[in-house]
């Protein structure tokens, strides 16, 4: 036993067969089932079907109702309402029974099914740039990407992660030449270099190199020659470049660790990783006529993409000096992901401001035949992180905000909140929970708005205990865990024969809808739908808890059944939060 059919799917199937028994030509039609305020579910599909069959919708609905088996198996009651809707009430026994089946799923997946024929998705996310600090703009790709990875894997999809870091290009000539002339600048006294130290080394080096580059013509010439050496694969130049990459990775890993995110070295395949493919990519595009020479550069033109002067803006695959840029790399990466990694779907979690680039790259790949109906590419474009003033987030001095500073501040604020509420927590626990709450707050604020929208980075709101925040969800979870601890010897147990109160039914029906929420959020790459579901789950739990005494319920069976509702809610919260990359501490 693993996968459990959700109540809504069961009702859906039931109605579909009642419908086709009444109206054979409606076989396979969707009864359009929705959760409803009037009853548990409402089915609206009969209206359109009646219209098509030129029948009276109320009459048709009445006939369908007469075909529906009611009882305490599944549908307790069904009635026609309005112009021909069906209002459906689920039997209490069915609610408890279905939840009990989920609870018994020994895989811990709460009965959520996995895809029968999963595909392979290559997801490009968390792609900072070598020798540069990570800023607030790198937050969203990492957080959204990580959640989409979890969601897809949970549905059974084969997921290949690709961190397309910026580790190639002209600035490396400058850095390498400088390091060559100042060989001891990256030496470390201690063997263990921390992330921040690695970054400050790089930062110092970058500034010094830049200064020399701007002031010394001869250095500039030497630096330019180095780029050519690098791209030609000169071993000494490559070895030095490797030093920069390694140093940057120490720093990236430290930031990802702070973000409580697992990144594998093998998945970091930066721009440099496609260097060997660039010439071939250009050749293929030119030979097939997809790209043409224009003023020496290799370009792809599009009818619908024009600059402000009305002239077409091409995608430049190779510059007139023979150099390759961002587009050539991305086109080569597509070939690698399609033909080598055998992807069905390419997903790019990248800033919306790169939408034109991806539009052109995808269209080029389609013309070349690398993308088609079976292999598709999609940019999961995200909006900008704004300051409280509604403008792109900057420091008071007008500089880009360093991601690490922002995370540290969130952790500080959250630790203060945890400390204030803490009852039986040690200092060590406060620090640990502070990090889990702070990072959770940052992630949740990002994930609870739909990715394509901008959002305001407002720490006060993010760590608030009230409202749609991760802290609210984490407290709900911790409260449930505390009740379960208090229950001691009394174990949660489902009693399907018990009648349920309104609050219990609402909570139970919502818990049961976890599977379809996950399927929807994964299918649409929309973690915000899962976030909204979890927030509602916590709210429904709160009203259940306000109205229904748990440990002091009337009968022992009721105590057990309510503990069971508590526990399955906790498990669902825990699983759902994990899919968002957020921890649920046992105590807060
Ligand atoms: N490194 C780039 C940046 O910081 C993002 C890379 C996005 N991925 C890609 N395949 N182009 O803007």
UniProtKB/TrEMBL annotation:
For this chain the motif 'HIGH' region maps to 128-138
- Give GO terms for biological process: arginyl-tRNA aminoacylation
Keywords in UniProt for this one? Aminoacyl-tRNA synthetase, ATP-binding, Cytoplasm, Ligase, Nucleotide-binding, Protein biosynthesis
Its Enzyme Commission number(s) read: 6.1.1.19
Localization recorded for this chain is: Cytoplasm
Domain DALR anticodon binding: start-end pairs: 473-588
Q: One GO CC annotation, please?
A: cytoplasm
Recorded hits in Gene3D superfamilies, A to Z, give: Arginyl tRNA synthetase N-terminal domain (3.30.1360.70), HUPs (3.40.50.620), Isoleucyl-tRNA Synthetase, Domain 1 (1.10.730.10)
Stretches assigned to the Arginyl tRNA synthetase N-terminal domain:
9-90
Please list the reactions this protein catalyses: tRNA(Arg) + L-arginine + ATP = L-arginyl-tRNA(Arg) + AMP + diphosphate
For this protein, the record's PROSITE patterns field holds: AA_TRNA_LIGASE_I (PS00178)
Pfam family example for this protein? DALR_1
InterPro entries xrefs: aa-tRNA-synth_I_CS, Arg-tRNA-ligase, Arg-tRNA-synth_N, Arg-tRNA-synth_N_sf, ArgRS_core, DALR_anticod-bd, Rossmann-like_a/b/a_fold, tRNAsynth_Ia_anticodon-bd
Going by the record, the broad EC class of this enzyme is: ligase
| Assembly notes | Monomer.
In the record, the note on similarity to other proteins reads: Belongs to the class-I aminoacyl-tRNA synthetase family.
The record ties this protein, via NCBIfam families, to: argS
Protein name, as recorded: Arginine--tRNA ligase
Organism listed in the record: Streptomyces fodineus
Q: What is the lineage of its organism?
A: Bacteria, Bacillati, Actinomycetota, Actinomycetes, Kitasatosporales
């Amino acid at each position: 036993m693993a996968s459990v059919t959700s109540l809504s799917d069961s009702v859906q199937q039931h109605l579909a067969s009642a419908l086709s028994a009444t109206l054979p030509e409606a076989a396979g039609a969707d009864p359009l089932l929705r959760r409803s305020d009037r009853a548990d579910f409402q089915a609206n599909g009969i209206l359109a079907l009646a219209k098509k069959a030129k029948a009276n919708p109320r009459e048709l609905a009445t006939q369908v109702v007469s075909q529906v088996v009611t009882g305490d198996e599944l549908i307790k009651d069904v009635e026609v309402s309005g112009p021909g809707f069906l209002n459906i009430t689920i039997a209490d026994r069915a609610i408890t029974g279905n939840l009990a089946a989920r609870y018994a799923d020994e895989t811990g997946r709460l009965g959520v099914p996995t895809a029968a024929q999963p595909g392979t998705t290559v997801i490009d996310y968390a792609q900072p740039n070598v020798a540069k600090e990570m800023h607030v703009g790198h937050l969203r790709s990492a957080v959204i990407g990580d959640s989409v990875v979890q969601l897809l894997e949970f549905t059974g999809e084969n997921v290949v992660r690709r961190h397309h870091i910026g580790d190639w290009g002209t600035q490396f000539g400058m850095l390498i030449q400088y390091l060559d002339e100042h060989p001891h600048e990256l030496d470390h006294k201690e063997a263990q270099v921390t992330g921040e130290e690695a970054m400050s080394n790089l930062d110092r080096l970058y500034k010094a190199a830049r200064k020399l580059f701007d002031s010394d013509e001869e250095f500039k010439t030497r630096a330019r020659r180095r780029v050519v050496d690098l791209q030609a694969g000169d071993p000494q130049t490559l070895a030095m470049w490797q030093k920069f990459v390694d140093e940057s990775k120490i720093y990236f890993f430290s930031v990802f660790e702070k973000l409580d995110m697992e990144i594998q070295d093998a998945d970091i395949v930066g721009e440099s990783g496609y260097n060997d493919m660039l010439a071939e990519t250009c050749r293929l595009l030119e030979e097939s006529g997809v790209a043409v020479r224009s003023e020496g550069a290799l370009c792809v033109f599009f009818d619908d993409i024009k600059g402000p002067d009305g002239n077409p803006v091409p995608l430049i695959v190779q510059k007139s000096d023979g150099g390759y840029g961002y587009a050539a790399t991305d086109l080569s990466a597509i070939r690698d992901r399609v033909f080598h990694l055998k992807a069905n779907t390419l997903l790019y979690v990248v800033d919306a401001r790169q939408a034109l680039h991806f539009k052109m790259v995808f269209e080029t790949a389609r013309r070349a035949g690398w993308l088609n109906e079976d292999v598709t590419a999609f940019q999961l474009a995200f909006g900008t992180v704004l300051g409280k003033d509604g403008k792109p987030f900057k420091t008071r001095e007008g500089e880009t905000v360093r991601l690490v500073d922002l995370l540290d501040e969130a952790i500080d604020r959250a630790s203060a909140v945890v400390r204030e509420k803490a009852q039986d927590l040690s200092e060590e626990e406060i620090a640990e929970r502070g990090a889990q709450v702070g990072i959770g707050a940052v992630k949740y604020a990002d994930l609870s708005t739909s990715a394509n929208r901008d959002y305001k980075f407002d720490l006060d709101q993010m760590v608030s205990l009230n409202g749609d925040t991760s802290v609210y969800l984490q407290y709900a979870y911790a409260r449930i865990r505390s009740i379960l601890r208090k229950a001691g010897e009394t174990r949660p147990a489902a009693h399907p024969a018990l009648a349920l109160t309104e609050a219990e039914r609402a909570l139970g029906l919502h818990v049961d809808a976890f599977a379809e929420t996950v399927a929807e959020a994964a299918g649409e790459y929309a973690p915000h739908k899962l976030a909204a579901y979890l927030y509602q789950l916590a709210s429904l739990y709160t009203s259940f808890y306000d109205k229904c005494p748990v440990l002091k319920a009337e009968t022992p069976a009721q105590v057990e059944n309510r503990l069971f509702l508590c526990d399955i809610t906790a498990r669902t919260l825990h699983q759902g939060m994990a899919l968002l990359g957020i921890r649920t501490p046992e105590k807060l």
